[in-house]
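Predict structure. Chain length: 809.
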Amino acid sequence: MSPTRPGRLIASTSAAAAVLLGVGLAAAPPALADDAAPVISEVYGGGGNSGALLRHDFVELGNPAGGPADLDGWSVQYLPAAPGPSTRVQVTALTGEIPAGGHHLVRQAAGAGGSVELPAPDTAGSTNMSATAGTVLLVSGTEPVSCRTAAACAQDGSVVDVVGYGNAVVHAGSPVTGLSNTASASRDAAFTDTGDNAADLTAGDPTPTNAAGETAGDGGGPEEPVEPGDLRVHDVQGTTRTSPYAGRQVTGLPGVVTAVNAFGGARGFWFQDTEGDGDPRTSEALFVFTGSTTPAVAPGDEVLVAGRVGEYRPAAGHQTTTQLDGARWTVLSTGNALPDSVLLDADALPEAYAPDHGGDVSGLELEPDKYALDFWAAHEHMTVRVEDAPVVGATDGYHALWVTTDPGQNPTVNGGTAYGSYDEPNSGRVKVESLLDRAEHPFPEANVGDTLAGVTEGPLHHSRFGGYLIRATTLGEHVPGGLERTPVRDTERYEVSIATYNVENLGGRDDQARFDALAAGIVDHLDTPDIIGLEEIQDDSGPVDDGTVDAGVTLDRLVEAVAAHGGPAYEWRQISPEDKQDGGQPGGNIRNAFLFDPERVEFVDREGGDATTAVEVVDGARGAELSVSPGRISPLDEAWDSSRKPLVGHFRALNRDVYVVTNHFNSKGGDEPLHGVNQPPNRTSEAQRHAQAELVGTFADELLAADPQANLVVMGDLNDFQFSRTLEILTGEGRLHNPMEDLPEGERYNYVFDGNSQALDHILVNRALAGRVDYAVARLNSEFHDQVSDHDPQVLWLDTRRSTPPGRG
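Prediction complete.
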């Protein structure tokens, strides 16, 4: 590591990069200034290529810390997509510093094309980068790295950050895709770094920014327009999702500024043509992107705008949004009336969500009176409003919430919007964020069932994280709906109570407040179930990637918190996974675990269960038994690659044998969004869950073949819906029964995502038990802004009065 100067950030490997690359944080140097190291914030290799606007390739660095970061003695290094042993590493030495929260621009080689210069670079190099595939490394040194694979680079302690793109061999997590002659990959304004290139960086228009905050638009591009041009905004927007003028310069577009984004790294303003063409397919508004510079305009300014038409894709699989880059504008007058906003209500949005096209819908003519997604696209950037809008998705950590324009659309018991089938994605949902200064106008902390009373109004934009959203310039008054956490019923003396709870990455180093909040839910609202299956239990060091796999500290702290809150002295069972083999948050080694109340339940231990040993059904003195308990189902099968393995336990309660399988199936990460460019969206993650369901189903078959009356419970975060093929595999052909299907439609949920109340967690039982179980969802988290987990737990009560004790059948 390079020496540091007083008052400067001590160079350190960023937490996310260290975890992902296998650099143990315990061995990493300490960090000052908010404990955050610089990251590679943007990568662009298309400079000067065919169709490119910019002449140079570039690498942009970002500093998320609260103090300047010293780069003296560091370097940016480049590897081609598939480097060999003799491949030359191209090194660009760095000097100077990155200001707190700022950028450092590294200009690289120029091509023969392009017309716009980068802003003044902070460092100049000569590396010729590929536009579509390669690896950029930020290194705390200037010696070329010797690694040529991701695994080898993971052992190089000098690597501070890495961005692999396209089909690059060296990358963090998964490589980011979508780069081209006209598209870079960039992080968000907060320089978010979770250690996964595909998740952290987004392909879109290049936005090079130097330490002075200057962008490419500050040093070149079009002249300030002085008279209207031949085109209007609706011409630029066109009648499809993409502009017919994409990549071209336009000038003299008239309109009135409707809103300004003065915060974050994606600043700019919206302007709208007050005349329009009367065509419902064409939007009359555009967004002018100014990078990290706040534009000197105000709502009501009459402007003429010139710039390059860009199609910005917020994230892979999302639709693009049309905007102007590198823009110039002239303010003709001020204080003009703003155009009337478009009312979004039940009559405005079609019930049908999107055309069933079977692929990319970008080039289809919009039909805004027929499809909701077409309606949104046809009103892109225009000022819209909702009135007395019901909240259907609670305020999240990014100061956003979801409302519905159609309260009668699949309502839930608590005022949300139920996701009841793939054909009912609920077209009335829309996200709300604020353009107002949060110090003066705090964003409401809303729960599902609350209301934004009065008018909420602003330009319609597209969110990186999910669908269309209103960037509110006016926020309705927050009116609470009275949502309360209510306890489930008490357990009768003849019942065995069994719960499942995804505790969302609970690790051994978490704050005590998390353990206390989870314990309060277990005691006060779940009535201390006899058996609890837990998902997302992390190892004792949490996401720190130090080789720890045991979770004894994590589970002991939870057990102690329950007891301190007046609950029973639970015991626990679990099997530690092999290091980094079960997916989840890098370094966390999440796994499933059991808690049980020894005053009510006996755990039948059978030694031999470990990370790779498969549990089998064997004959025992009392009938069917397990070869190991706890045990794992087929842990070496490829269906469980980078995924949590099911945990099976044999319990004895009220003289009844109960076999419980707690699961956490493969996540939905990688599936295309409901609002995405492909309709219907591809659900690529399903294949692995289907294979996992078959393995769990086969285990259930084997147990029930040995004992058709066995008390079998299969539960957990199955990461799929009650109507999905995954659940069909488990419940079809008389296998298992899902008590959730017995609830009213408005109660079939335990998770809220993008304003849709949906079911990802389930408790299934064998058919012989179906008539003697009761079931409830404990609504503790998913509908509340102050949730301790994003999942609601569930409880099943097994009535033992009507079962046959062992040896009496």
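Summary: Residues 686-706 form the longest helix (21 residues).
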